UniProtKB/TrEMBL annotation:
Annotated coiled-coil segments of the chain: none
Pfam families in the record: Abhydrolase_1 (PF00561)
Annotated AB hydrolase-1 domain residues: 24-267
InterPro entries: AB_hydrolase, AB_hydrolase_1, AB_hydrolase_fold
Name this protein carries in UniProt: AB hydrolase-1 domain-containing protein
Length: 285
């Protein structure tokens, strides 16, 4: 998952693949170092070291067979996935890189870029921080739409309702309200969101760099027909030109450009994303 996010961000996908289709799929989500339930060592983070964290977890689970893994990474997670693919290419069945980049570069004016970077680290009231986060991840037009998120029910396998909150789960009035509730839950829990962990992750994402030659090697070893790159044209965190550059360097078998979509494709495009993933997984598994 991306910078400052934790594994609960994947809840739509764990519901779809892990609960509702658990007879076909095993779903693994985890917190990157610096966030959530994972440790936050005080040292310089890198996307390559974070990929090694993932490999240790996969090895521990015994997921070591050739062409066994469907790897999906968003944003910084997509950078980690690039490193992972170079380390264990033969274990990957499909590689899905969403809203990510081979490296971060200026695609705006110097002063706009400087302001964006500075504002990431300027303390601000919690409500303002949550609002700014929402607008960096999603188009304002989508945030104002009614919340139609697919929710679990009392018949969903391996799902229990929280004490005192029986099914059915209720929808929020808007997509923004659902995002804000999840973001507040994370930020008000000191174990879920660690400020210094966020800063260390930001260093890792900022220093990530994969050259055209490295991405050619990645494509050669994994197999380009097994790779998908997806990017929204309204991405405000990792702007669309980054996705275009990744597609040009990597030449993936599938390149999906989503008009009018922001940074968080698996959330904004939930149904479309699941359909695409199922078709891709079934082709190579």
């Amino acid at each position: 998952m991306g910078l400052g996010s934790n594994k609960s961000t994947w809840q739509r996908q764990t519901l779809y693949f892990g609960h509702e289709r658990g007879d076909k799929y095993s779903s693994l989500v985890f917190d990157n170092r610096g966030m959530g339930g994972s440790d936050t060592p005080i040292l310089r983070y890198s996307t390559s070291e974070m990929a090694k964290d993932c490999i240790e977890l996969l090895d521990h689970l015994g997921w070591t067979k050739d062409r066994q893994l469907n790897i999906t990474g968003v944003s910084m997670g997509g950078m980690i996935a690039q490193e992972l693919a170079l380390m264990i290419p033969n274990r990957i069945a499909t590689l899905n890189l969403l809203s990510t980049a081979p490296y971060i570069e200026n695609t705006t004016s110097f002063f706009e870029n400087l302001r964006t970077r500075v504002m990431m680290f300027v303390p601000k009231p919690l409500d303002r921080s949550v609002l700014d986060a929402s607008l960096s991840l999603f188009p304002a037009s989508w945030l104002s739409l009614p919340d139609t998120t697919h929710l679990p029910s009392d018949s969903t396998p391996l799902v229990e309702s929280p004490p005192g909150h029986p099914f059915p789960y209720a929808h929020f009035s808007t997509n923004y309200e659902r995002f804000a509730a999840a973001e507040l839950t994370k930020r008000l829990d000191p174990k879920a969101f660690k400020t210094y962990g966020f800063l260390l992750q930001a260093i890792a994402a900022g220093w990530h760099h994969k050259s055209p030659a490295q991405l050619k090697e990645l494509g050669d070893k994994v197999g380009r027909d097994r790779i998908a790159v997806m990017h929204g044209t309204l991405d405000r965190l990792i702007s669309f030109p980054h996705g275009e550059k990744l597609m040009a360097f990597l030449q993936p078998g599938r390149a999906e450009i989503r008009e009018g979509v922001g940074h968080a494709i698996p959330i904004q495009e939930e149904d479309w994303f699941h359909e695409k993933m199922v078709a891709f997984f079934e082709e190579f598994n």
